[in-house]
């Protein structure tokens, strides 16, 4: 007879990896990170919470209780962008500044960057000299009016994310 670990071990390990790496995720984000496995994820999450391996605080699945006090809203928004591409994603991970996260899709590296309002010029300068082959950037903005102020080479597109996770994409004209 197979145990829960035998049946769901890989999914549980992946869930723990994602929650630990991103620190805080919504239930909907976790479900969308695993397309076609929603029932398994819905069953695993309460089990992992009961075991104390994941913490459910104010509707957020957290790696540790203190993570709910220090939510990186830009990273949470970047994960919504990631889940929009998840069917094409081969690998994803958090990243170093200025990127919030990176992922490989269609044999290309993408970085999701948050352009904090008021820091557009600084971000443009940071990304001005990106080396020989820069990744493709998906630039997350707080307000579409910021797009005109940004000069980012290799920007694949710009986007906003609503609190419910709806992503709207823009191209610079």
SSE map:
Elements: H1 4-22, E1 24-26, H2 27-33, H3 38-51, E2 55-57, E3 60-62, H4 73-85, E4 89-94, E5 99-105, E6 108-115, H5 120-126, E7 136-141, E8 155-161, E9 167-170
Parallel strand pairs: 6-7, 7-8
Antiparallel strand pairs: 1-3, 2-3, 4-5, 5-6, 8-9
Helix pairs in contact: 1-3
Summarize the structure.
This protein has 173 residues and is α+β, with helices and mostly antiparallel strands. It has 5 helices and 9 strands, in the order H-E-H-H-E-E-H-E-E-E-H-E-E-E. Helix 1 crosses helix 3.
Describe it for me?
The chain has 173 residues and is α+β, with helices and mostly antiparallel strands. It is built from five helices and nine strands, in the order αβααββαβββαβββ. The protein has helices spanning 4-22, 27-33, 38-51, 73-85, 120-126; strands spanning 24-26, 55-57, 60-62, 89-94, 99-105, 108-115, 136-141, 155-161, 167-170. A hairpin with a 5-residue loop joins β8 (155-161) and β9 (167-170). The chain is globular, with a radius of gyration of 17 Å. The mean pLDDT is 90.
